[in-house]
Structure formats: structure tokens, C-alpha cells
Amino acid sequence: MNSIPNSFKAGPDERGHFGIFGGRFVAETLMPLILELEQAYKDAKADPKFQAEIDRLNKDYIGRPSPLYYADRMTKRLGGAKVYFKRDELNHTGAHKINNCIGQILLANRMGRKRIIAETGAGQHGVATATVAALFGLPCTIYMGATDVERQQPNVFRMKLLGAEVKPVTSGSQTLKDAMNEALRDWVTNVHDTYYIIGTVAGPHPYPEMVRDFQSVIGKEARAQMLEAEGRAPDSLVACIGGGSNAMGLFYEFLDDKDIKIYGVEAGGHGVETGQHAASLTAGRPGILHGNRTYLLQDADGQITEAHSISAGLDYPGVGPEHAWLRDAGRVNYVSITDREALDAFQLCARLEGILPALEPSHALGYVTKLAPTLPKDHILLMNLCGRGDKDIFTIAKALGQNL
Amino acid sequence: MNTPAPPGHPGQHPEAAPRRPRERSDAKVGAARIAQRFADLKAEQRAGLITFITAGDPDIDTSREILKALPAAGADLIELGMPFTDPMADGPAIQKANLRALKSGATVAKTLALVRSFRETDTTTPLLLMGYYNPIYAYGVHHFLSDAVAAGVDGLIAVDIPPEEDDELCLPALRNGMSFVRLATPTTDDRRLPRVLEHTSGFVYYVSMAGITGVGKIDPADVAAHVARIRKQTPLPIAVGFGIRTADQAAAIARVADACVVGSALVDRIAEATAAGGGSATVVNAARELTSTLAEGVRRVVKAATDKGAP
Q1: Residue B143 counted as domain residue
Q2: A33 in contact with B at a CB cutoff of 8 Å?
Q3: Which residue of B has its CA nearest to A287?
Q4: Among candidate residues A288, A298, A302, the one with its CA nearest the CA of residue B107
Q5: What's the pLDDT tens digit per position in A8-34?
Q6: I need a labelling partner for A380 at 20 to 30 A (CA). Which of A336, B35, B176, B270 fits?
Q7: Residue of B187, B208, B217, B264 to mutate when probing chain A, most A C-beta within 10 A
Q8: ipTM higher than threshold 0.90
Q9: What pTM was estimated for this model as a whole?
Q10: What are the chain B neighbours of A295 within 8 Å (beta carbons)?
Q11: Angle CA(B168)–CA(B171)–CA(B174) in degrees, nearest 5?
Q12: C-alpha distance from B112 to closest chain A C-alpha (Å)
């Protein structure tokens, strides 16, 4: 970026571009539906009844607003900035993913779609999608990489209990990227009646914008809650980044508060230097995948390489295009935390705060444990605790060398 | 003779299938080579056969030999797939072909080398590269286009670049004298068609069904209705693909379209022959046989001289 834009909140443009990122790189079969979806979302945004219905379900069904929690013992242990958690792990279904699913299922309903599909990595988006599909009485198929089906068994069973069909994907690396390929293949085949609930701020326009909007309730609530708790806005924000929906949900509200420092934490896997990681903003280059241009893990020939993370929800070789743009614009600092650091943070949080965070926000917390001690005691640091860790106990036990 | 009639059906329609002129030293290139081929097909009063294979499948050397064998076996135009790890619009057959090709070391540069090698002996059969955008973007669009033109590529089909992103690759390709062939689908309604057709050149590729490659069954009556709908809006030739596996299906589509595209069936045949383990020559023969069979299907149909294709 040569110059700082007037606002970091103005994107995307009418073609769905955030600078050079984003766009609509999909097969022609999907284009008419993508355009229809864009129009339907515009109409819905202009309809007060649509927002009123989201507000009602957010409150009565999800349990919003999620609490803002001052993590006193964590703060004292780290010895620096005051650490606050935005408790989105207390939402119905145990993560932020439901915020987006409520918005999209209402939109699918407005569009008269009769069948729901979704991709999932950790299974949190799959559970949230299966939940809203049950709530609206629609059949639902969830695509999940076979590797992830194996490591996220509790969520697979949850989805089945909710009436969803879970299809293990055995192509490619058998993780989130391949689940998304397979969901797109389903969509292109059943384009006449199917709505695809994408779980993150990626995919073709209007998904990145739409998912961000549905998640931005996190940041809006956090600002009001922090004002009440501390009389002012936070000084720093920290959130983990896979596709980046919980992070956009927290960050978006504060992008134009130029004094607020913002940190996005990618999965460093075994370490960025090992090549086995999921840190596309740190170590990738711009490319085109899953409908948008963004930073991707790829080889010199433009072939997508496999991501690695202990966290299935971060195990994706791309990232939402708005993050790519915010990176290049220098507005958000993107950093990485390794599997080991995330595990350490998980255990610290369990013992100090009595909270089992999911492995995804454990990455954010891993960075908080590095950052907070370097900051003064009057510095307010807000982290998005975007999911609960119950789903991860088997993975964590294995990583800690214990048998359950 | 560049493209003899396939074995078994010589001279079936002698008047309808005039021999093509021998290769000339002033052979056309790029978009003009494609236009020439469709003009020739029209003169021969028949539809064309377009065969798709993936570059580097099952390995680089074998795919070079297959490529060289296709025109003599009856392929009128060739689509050469550029391998990609995440072929989102493709079914299992072509997904696997992509993986075999990548495993054999296929890259964009090696794909272009295959085209150069093909052009050493064939300067009249149009060749289009078909694939996804990222490998081209990684190579560099400008660099890619100049190398592709130099190698003898005549056109591009980019699955994941709709007209909304025309300035990415379509318009630069046209400026380089290449055709950019766009896909029209059952969901491309009459209101959207002009947008899809706007910068399409060479021919229009009608995708016969909403779905991925190689899994559905083609419905000739439905295809006929859509082709008629598209013809109202463009003078370009119309090729039809997705779901054509047999000579009979090729014949049925040849009645309504200007060309039939066969991909997954050929790729499946290559995969079977490779798995059977007879070596490179066996695989090339298998591809040649299926191409001849399909060419026979296409050539069963004598088309009227005036009412189809470019005026």
C-alpha cells in the first residue's frame, strides 16, 4: 500500500475486492447464484426485520451478548497488561461460528433454499451449521476431511445427533481445504436448491463481507462492555487466524481506532521455519483459491501446499482476503504461535482461570502470554476466546502423551 | 493428411468430408488457427471432436506421445489440462489425473514444453490450455501469455475466472492473439449470456449440466434447447462437453453442436491402461482407440452446409 486509506472499514468495493484481494473466482455455474446471493444479502441488510430476527436469535438462542471477562489470575501471572477475554466460547454450540450461521440460515430461508451444505475443519462450524439446519428444519450435509473426522470425533457425533449427514473427504490432504473443494463440488451440482454456508471470511464475494458482518457483533459488544468496565476502549486486540472469522468479528469494529494495536495469530505448527505450519500471511504469497485472491501456502509452481497445525480449525493454507489486505496495509500485525506454545497456553488457562479454551484461541492466548509481560499495567489487552476446548481433549491428551 | 478419417469409416460421406488441405508454411496461429479449424469442419459438413487430457498424466513422456497421437486418431481440437492440486470443478477422474500428473513432476513450464514438442509436427490442430488460475498467476500472467504464444498455444479455458474478473487473464490473452473460451452453463440464463459471450472468442463451450466433470449423464434434448438459446446470441461455434463418453453420445451431440468435448472418459481410459501396467505404448494405444471410436461417432452426422457456426 502506498497510502493509508481514509477508512479501513470501507471494503470491499462493488466487485468484492479488498485492494488486490478477494473477488469472485468461481466456475460459471455458480456465478448466477453468487450474484443472486449478493442481491439477497443487500436486500436483507436493508430490511429491519432481518436484523431484528438476528438480534432475537442472538439473544434468546445463542445467549448473546457473550461476557467480557477480566482474567485476573492470568493478568497477575503475566505481570503486565490487563488481560480481558471476550467469552465467545460460552455461546450455544461452544464457539463464535454460530453467529455467522444464524445470519446465513435466515438468508437461505429468505432465498427459499431447501438444503444446506457446509465445510468444516475442527467441526465447530459443522456443529453450528447442523444446529441452525435443525432449528429451521432443513436437511444438511457437512463435508469434513477424513483426517479431521478422525481427530474431532466428538464434533462428528454431535453433528450426527443434530441430524446432519457428515461426509468424510478423502481427496488431497483430507483436511479443511479439501472439505471446501468438496462442498464447492456439491454446490455446483445442486445449485438449484442448495445454500452453502461458508464458515469463514473467505470464498467468493459476498461471503467474506457477509461473514464478517455477521461476526462483527463480537467487536460491537466488546466496545460497549469495555466502556462499561474500564471507561474506555482496549489498547490491544488479539485473536487467532485460520480463515479469520473470529478475528474479523473482533477487529472490524476497531479498525479505524488508529491507536489500537491489533494482532492476528496464525498457527505456527512445528515452527514456521520447518515448513510445517498454517501461517499463510507470515510465509505465503498471494494466489487464487476457493473463489478469492489471498495469501496462500503454495510452491513455486502455484500448487497449494499442505498446512499443518495441531488445531484442525487453523489447518488451512489460505486466509480471508480482508486479512490479506489488512496485512499489506500494515493495519494488523500478523504473528504466529507454534503447536507447543498453544498447548502450554491451554494448560496455563485451564489451571489459572478454570477455562478450557479450544486449541484455536489457545494460539491467541499463546501470543498474549508473550505480549502482555512487555506492556505496562494500565494497558488493556482484549483477546477473543472464540471457542471451548472440550472437543480437543483427545488431541491434547495425545499431545501430552496420555491415554484417555 | 493431417487428420485422416478414423479407421473403419473411410469415405462414409465422401462429399461431406472433403480432405483438408495439406499443412502450409503460412499456417495460422492462435485465435486464427481455431477459426480455420471450425471453417474446415463446416466445409466438411460435420462437427468436431475436442479431446481433453491432462499434461503429465500418467507421466510426462507418455502424455507427450498421447498428445501427438490424438489428431491422427480423429481429434480436431485439443484441450490440454494444466495440473492443479485443487481442481474444484472436476470430478474424481480428472482429480486423479491431476494428482498423477503432479506426482510425475508436471509444472506449467513442462506443460508448455509439451506444447512446443507437439507443434514440431503439427501446426494445424488448435490446442487450448485448460485449467485453474493459480498456477498461471504464480507463473506471472504476462510471462505465461508470451511463453504460451511462443509454444503454440491457441487459446485458454480458465475454469475459475468468470467475466466479472475479465481483466485478470481474458483481456490480456485476447491482446496476445489467443482465444479465450468461456464456459456457458445451464445456469447462465438469457439475461447473463451477453456478459459471458462478450469477450469469448474461438468458440463457446456449453457445459451440458450443472455439476463437476465426468459424473453425470448427458441429455441431448436438453442440450439442443440450450444450444439453440445460445446460438440466438452468438455467431461463434458452440462446443458441448460434460457427460459424453461413447460414440453414440458423441453422434447425438454432433447433431446439435459444432463440436463435442470428451475429457473424463479419455482420462479414465488412460488411467485404466496405466493401471493395467502394459507400459507407455499400451496407454497411448488405449487413448488412440477411444479417440477413433468417438471420432467415428461424430462423423456419422452430416451437417447442413449453411445453418451452423460462423457465417
Answers
A1: yes
A2: yes
A3: B134
A4: A302
A5: 999 999 999 999 999 999 999 999 999
A6: A336
A7: B187
A8: yes
A9: 0.94
A10: none
A11: 135
A12: 13
